[in-house]
Amino acid sequence: xxxxxxxxxxxxxxxxxxxxxxxxxxxxxxxxxxxxxxxxxxxxxxxxxxxxxxxxxxxxxxxxxxxxxxxxxxxxxxxxxxxxxxxxxxxxxxxxxxxxxxxxxxxxxxxxxxxxxxxxxxxxxxxxxxxxxx
Length: 134
Description:
Elements: E1 3-7, E2 10-14, H1 20-26, E3 31-34, E4 40-42, E5 54-57, E6 60-64, E7 75-77, E8 109-114, E9 124-129
Parallel strand pairs: 1-7
Antiparallel strand pairs: 1-2, 3-4, 5-6, 5-7, 8-9
């Protein structure tokens, strides 16, 4: 018997090192939320750049399913059974209403100097995100 996660109350099998999106696709689920106009959305970019694959995992909302490892026992809620919360358009906000930026883990962003980067003789900073999940 394989491990499972619950997706909108129904068990979905998960394999080792699978993301939530991969488990959904393997189960034949191609879309799991809709746009405001009712168009289906699911996995699009698969690398965390877009926001088409948003789900709620264990009560944490607006999680990109393509980036979150599926762990046995996780409870996933999609946007297909309840309205998807949307943020007010940026153009209608005043500066004092801007949302606070999300804080990244202290060890998530690493800056280092690479000699001669970008064809220059000047040291240039290079940013990369390191994996922190072991």
